[in-house]
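Tutorial, part two.
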Amino acid sequence: MPRRKKEANSNSQEDHSQKAYQGIRRLLYYKELVPGQKIPYRELAERLNMSPTPIIQALKWLEIEDFVLHKPNRGYYMTPFSLQEIEEIYELREIIEPSLLPETIKRLDKGKIKRLKASLDAHLSAEREFYLKERLFKNTDFHLTLASLSGKQTQIRVLRHVFDLLLLKYGGNHMPIGSMDAMDNDHQKTFECAVSGDVKGAKSILSRHICNVKKEVLKGFKRVLEEKEESVFEAHAGKFGMGMSRTG
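Running the prediction step on this input gives:
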């Protein structure tokens, strides 16, 4: 086969694998694939209108990114739900994000301040309904914009993956609606400290903010797990004819 034809075929395979990768990510976003679920890759191939080969390649990429787990002779599965992983994600954010602030603040100029302000305003103006994805993306954009202005590319890549896990695998922040005002206030104060050159103040507010969000998120996910366990127990109780009394 001529060299150019081989290169064309290789590029075509890469394009199909990339299309499959993006298609599966959309399914994660819309929660059509959830933690612990077995992935029917042949059904995915039919749904995305392509052969199984690019689907498998995309799943291998997602395995590297910790979204997917391959079990020999059993197939591909979504990695299971993990409170420890969520806690470690926020611990990583607590380390990285405040550490980038001194460089971000040092590099701020009119253009960068305008960019950060636009990101802040987009978040503050987003709809405040519970679990609304637009708000979660705007929140993520503010944090990543603040980090990206530091120019620390390796740490920024790590943060992008961290937020990918939160948004795609865990569906964002499970937070009570009352914490929205506190979140907005923390973002506003972090911005004001950064613009005024107050490194210590910005680091203190951002560190406290991430720590508080971590506590609320873990509380929310623990509640979700408890509700799932209770529903499973009730289902088994109903199956075996057990009486369930909630009156004590």
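DSSP finds nine helices and two strands in the chain. In part three we will examine how such features are distributed along the chain.
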